[in-house]
Amino acid sequence: MLEKNPYMNLEKRAFWRTAIADRSMFSIDELWKPKFKITPESAVSTYGSCFAQHIGKSLRKRGYNWLITENAPQDLSEKSAAELNYGIFSSRTANIYTASLLLQWISWASGEAETPDEIWESEGRFYDPFRPAIENGGFENQEEMVSLRNHTISLFRDSIVKADFFVFTMGLTESWFNKAGYEYPMCPGTAAGSFDPNQHQFLNQDYSFILDKMSTALDAAKCLNPDLRFILTVSPVPLTATNSGNHVLAATMESKSILRAVAGYLARTRTDTDYFPSYEIINGPPFGAIFFEPNKRNVHPSGVEFVMNSFFSAIGAAQKIQKTKLSAELVKPNADLDVGCEEAMLEAYAESSK
What we know:
Elements: H1 16-21, E1 43-48, H2 53-61, E2 65-66, H3 78-83, H4 99-110, E3 120-122, E4 125-127, H5 142-161, E5 165-170, E6 174-178, E7 183-184, E8 200-204, H6 207-224, E9 229-234, H7 248-269, E10 273-275, H8 278-283, H9 301-314, H10 328-331
Parallel strand pairs: 1-2, 1-5, 5-9, 9-10
Antiparallel strand pairs: 3-4, 6-7, 6-8
Helix pairs in contact: 4-5, 4-6, 6-7
């Protein structure tokens, strides 16, 4: 007879056999038990890495209140607005890959820090070091660049103040800083600008650094909006390239593992923070990497849909997970790879590698 112990009273979701092995991948449920009640009326801001772009669009698709504080000018076509990075995140920040970069944006929005006066110029066009690919071909002059960045900072602040929930997708540990102390979203000399080894330095952020920056960022956002609650996710998208000296696969697994550990700790220890397992759904053993494109990096739209159906099913939305056709539809290359993803630009440097 089995003796009584804590495992005897656990739910079926706590055991691999009953939660995973005895089920098809489509019947795996209860991956997430939300801390908070999210309704269609809840104002939800979204930011982060490339995969975060799918969350806002899925909110809108399902009739939820995706909070957009920076809208495209009315005379812009939908295509042109997307090319200029409107409607990608709640404001026009472009991708925010790291916790420290999120803190930097919040510090600018709160007035705790001033934006650096660095500007990149090339062939008479001007580029924002903190949004290097926000406008294809750069800005006409530096006044326009600075004015539009300040406008975004103001509207980024609004997206914190007016939100009920702030969803942030953690993407990278590898980062680039100016020795003056501020961070770039991309290494200078890739998307724009030029690299100076005397001025620019690489930092592969570790667990303690990321935990400190993310905790400080969440607290700073709460100073702007005391009622704000957070949902963290980790991007399942592998690194395009690594400057760590390691193989890109090993670097990816290390990076994502650290980010996942930080997100899990914050979700366990903060009552205002939850974690949604998008990373696990795409990369977990039960799903066998079937949701990746042939390049083994981008997530196929079927995978995105599967993840988002899991999210909305968990918060009680009427739409349930549908069985995805795992045939030619899933392996057919998607023409819209890396839309709005600056990091993917690093792929261009593969041809010149040693």
